[in-house]
Amino acid sequence: MSTKLLVENEDDNNKSQVHNFQIRPTHNQKFNTNIAKEAIQETLLKHLKDKEYSQIQAEVLCKTIASEIKDRLKDQCVDSRYKLMVQVVLGERHGAGTKVGARCIWDADTDTQASDQFLNETIFCMAVVFAVYFY
After folding, report:
1. Contact at 8 Å (CB) between 2 and 25?
2. Contact (Cβ atoms closer than 8 angstroms) between residue 27 and residue 110
C-alpha cells in the first residue's frame, strides 16, 4: 500500500495549491529480487565461467561486474527512487572459508537485497545488490 502526504498551502494570490508526495512505493514499484538475482547470476556466469583466478585482473573484473549489474538493474526493475549499491567479492579458491557481512539501518517494508555466488576450480565470487528506497 502506498502512503501519500497531502500538503495544502496558499500562494501570494490566495490561491490554494495541493501537493501530493508519495512516501512509499506501490506494490508494482517495489524492487524485484527475483529479477535482480537472475541478473546477478547471468552477469557472474558471463564474466567468470571460463576464467582462472588472476590477482592482476581481479580488481578490474570486480568493478566491471559491479557496474554491469547496477546498469542492468537500473534498466530492468528499479523505480528511480531506489538507490542501488552493488558489492562484489572475488577471490582465489584454496579450500579455506570466507565470510562476508554487511550491516545497515533500513526500512524493512521498502528496502531489500539480492545476492548470488559463483564458484569454479580457482575462483569464488559473491555479488550483493542492496536496494534502498529514497524518501
Report:
1. yes
2. no
